[in-house]
Amino acid sequence: MAIDQASAGDAPCISLRGIGKSFGGVPVLSDIDLDIGLGEIHGLVGENGAGKSTLGKIIGGYYSASVGHIEVFGDPVSVWTPPLALDRGVAMMHQELQLVPALSVAQNVFLGIEEQHFGVLAQTENARLADVMTASGFSLDPAAITSDLSIADQQKIEIMRALAREARVIVMDEPTSSLTADEAERLHETMLRLKQTGATIIYVSHFLDDILAVCDRITVLRDGRLVRTADAADETKGSLVSAMLGGEQTETPYPPKSIPQPSTGEPALLVENLSAPSGVSNVSLTVNGGEIVGLIGLVGSGRTEIARAIFGADRANGGTIRLSGKPYDDRTPAVSAERGIVMVPEDRRKQGLVMTLPVRANMTLPHLSHFTMIGGTIRTALEKSRVRELIDYFRVMPANVDGEVPYYSGGNQQKVLLGKWLMRDPGIVILDEPSRGVDVGARQRIHEAISELAAKGTAVLLISSEIEEVLGLAHRAYLVHKGGLVGEVDPETSTTQDVLWALFHQEDNNSEALGGNAP
After folding, report:
1. Integer Rg of the chain from CA
2. 205 vs 19, 214, 262, CA distance in Å?
3. Potential cystine with 298: which of 107, 206, 293, 411 (Cβ 3.0-4.6 Å)?
């Protein structure tokens, strides 16, 4: 592979050679050779799952490369962690906010770099924050408690944390995902000012217009591999989209879609004008029994927030939900499960599984009342029998009802998580990234299971960062932008490129997408 040399003939500040990264045996990055030049804004783009955030985290020290090596300002590094990176002038601004909710704005911004006098904190954070806010263009109350702020304001804190460290290299992972257009513009102005001081910005974003507006060079990733690095002046939105999509094929064929029975009654799930403090805005949608309906949107679009508000994991502050025609108001995850609506979350390790419990306990944990006799004794034989059925159905390996979940591959952990929520044959299933980070065989089995759910009459709401996955499985799909629905697409007649163009077009003028009408 040809090496991309740093611009302007300068030695690169970051040099990557042969970088690869795998999670649970599943490769996420392969053979990445890349130089990041001094004093440049360097864009990283690619579809969801292309590996751009993973690459950013390797540069920032949050992930260790599985293979390959890194040089920072000309010096090779063998051990690379966030503190070591910061010591060498490399800071990272995370897409997933890394804040302490109970601390104030100022305390979070300067956490770990507080001024001290003889080992005692000098309590100067509020005064120091004024300079950072001037540099960033943001304005927040230094004493405000972080947990009381909106996601957008918390995003500003994350940005100011990186600026406060006066790093020479700042990795910004989707920094504008929760910002207004005006706030994003101020951030871009800050980035350009930092560039003028000689700082380097690595800008990870889905928003191609933003990338083209401020970046000097752009690297395109696809399926964990580097497609090309080129000057931004030589790229257009069309050329970037083509490079992101170029000739990719689905890993496995999608199962045939069942034909939903004509609806003769109320939809299994009816959502009208749903709003939530998490950013959900006036969402209306339907899912019929036997139908797979997708939610498609870019990072930060609000897909997961919509699902969580429907399920009751997040509080709603407007709108109504009806299940088969019956109102569902006081929603909580526990009540939802009892009423036959379940949600498989996107993060199996943090939100889905208890990593200290075996397979059987993980699968039956939400359903113990159905395996318990009077007096509280668990009917172990019945519990094992049902878990065995699910292990066989999903082809979980090792096929051990008391297997140790932490040592299972990502694909087998995901199958355990699906078994957990499908144990009692729910009527409505919400799937958030059901095949993220799994191997080809597990992915195919999960796709078959989703199709089989619909074939037996289950209503399925599907969220995936992979547009091809939604188009390959869903009967209908809604486009999501800034917490609302902006159109509906027919997977049978829409291509991935159609959908990407429609979503990126929303960033331009929020116009109607693909001729569909927002519900």
Report:
1. 24
2. 21, 12, 41
3. 206
With beta carbons less than 8 A apart as the criterion, state whether 434 and 473 touch.
no
> What domains does the chain contain, in order, with CATH numbers?
7-245 (3.40.50.300), 253-340+428-519 (3.40.50.300), 349-423 (no CATH)
Pairwise CA distance, residues 513 & 300, whole Å: 18
d(CA 428, CA 421): 11
Main-chain dihedrals φ then ψ at residue 89, nearest 5 degrees: 90, 20
Alpha helices by DSSP H, listed for 436-483, are 440-455, 467-473
Q: Looking at 285-409, list the stretches that DSSP marks H as alpha helix, in order from N- to C-terminal side.
A: 303-311, 333-338, 359-364, 380-394
Per-residue pLDDT of the chain (519 residues; tens, 9 = 90+): 333 444 444 679 999 999 999 876 778 899 999 999 999 999 999 876 678 888 999 999 989 999 999 999 999 998 899 889 988 989 888 766 778 889 999 988 888 777 766 555 556 777 788 888 887 778 889 999 998 887 668 878 887 888 888 789 999 988 876 676 777 888 888 889 889 888 899 999 877 889 999 999 999 998 889 999 999 999 998 888 888 877 444 445 789 998 876 666 899 999 999 999 999 999 999 999 999 999 998 777 899 999 999 999 999 999 999 999 999 998 999 999 989 999 999 888 778 899 899 999 999 998 888 888 887 888 899 999 999 999 999 999 888 999 888 877 777 889 999 999 999 899 999 999 898 767 656 788 999 999 999 999 999 999 988 888 999 999 999 999 989 999 999 999 998 888 988 887 765 554 343 434 333
Residue type at position 330? D
Distance CA 171, CA 201 (A): 6
- First-to-last CA distance in the chain? 48
Q: Are strands 75-77 and 67-72 parallel, antiparallel or unpaired?
A: antiparallel
What backbone phi and psi angles, to 5 degrees, belong to 254? Answer: -80, 145
**Structure letter (DSSP) for residue 413:** H
Kindly report whether the peptide bond that precedes residue 398 is cis, defined as omega within 30 degrees of 0: yes
Q: CA–CA separation, 496 vs 227, rounded Å?
A: 18
* Nearest C-alpha neighbor of 85 from the set 109, 103, 64: 64
